[in-house]
Design brief:
With about 200 residues, this protein is of the alpha+beta class. The protein contains 8 helices and 6 strands; from the N terminus they run ααααααααββββββ. Strand 5 and strand 6 form a beta hairpin. Helix 3 packs antiparallel against helix 4. It is globular and about 70 Å long.
């Protein structure tokens, strides 16, 4: 199946193998929305809701106004309100916000140069550009956070050992924020201020 195009695998009903093929494409060219959409679709048909949700979020963040992508996300909603907030999708991309800031910056300085002063609407435009640059940076950082979607209910441990006391639990399709790795274990933050350790293979 590694050499078979994922489209053929998908048509043959080999959805898990198709998802793997689409994911290889997505990782090779992560800026293409269609690749992530295909990963999400094939994963959903294969019964892997966590991967479907994660891939769908990647697709939606690349093309937030794509109605097909938005409809696909309705098939696998986040597991809880905290997960929904962690996977929030802006109606515009960081690049679009940055471009708006650049336009406002250029127009503001051109206007100031032509009218002989940095005041009034030109000052507002330049100030708005600075705000937009900051918003684009913040949105990009939000999207780059190491958030994982859980495929099954998971118990958080107080320390990185299987026999450690439980520190909390995260439900299926909930999310965790990965903070530190120690061997096979990952320290995470979860809903309600929970913190604990979970095996990396379970993320």
């Amino acid at each position: 199946s590694a050499q078979t195009p994922p489209e053929q695998l998908y048509e043959a009903g080999a959805y898990s193998a198709a998802a793997e093929g689409f994911q290889r494409r997505a990782l090779a060219t992560p800026e293409i929305t269609t690749h992530w959409f295909n990963v999400g679709d094939a994963s959903w048909r294969a019964g892997d809701d966590a991967q479907s949700l994660a891939a769908g979020i990647r697709a939606a963040r690349l093309s937030p106004r794509d109605q097909g992508v938005r409809r696909a996300l309705l098939l696998v909603p986040p597991g809880d309100p905290w997960a929904a907030r962690s996977l929030w999708i802006s109606p515009v991309t960081p690049a679009e916000v940055w471009l708006l800031g650049l336009i406002a910056w250029v127009v503001g300085w051109i206007g100031a140069a032509l009218t002989g002063g940095l005041r009034g609407r030109w000052l507002v435009l330049i100030g708005g550009a600075v705000v937009l640059f900051g918003a684009a940076t913040a949105l990009g950082r939000w999207y780059r956070r190491p958030v994982a979607v859980l495929a099954a209910n998971q118990v958080l441990r107080l320390s990185p050992h299987e026999q450690a006391p439980p520190a909390g639990e995260v439900a299926r399709l909930g999310t965790v924020l990965m903070e530190e790795r120690r061997g096979a274990w990952v320290r995470v933050a979860a809903q309600g201020g929970q913190e604990g350790w979970i095996l990396g293979k379970d993320l």
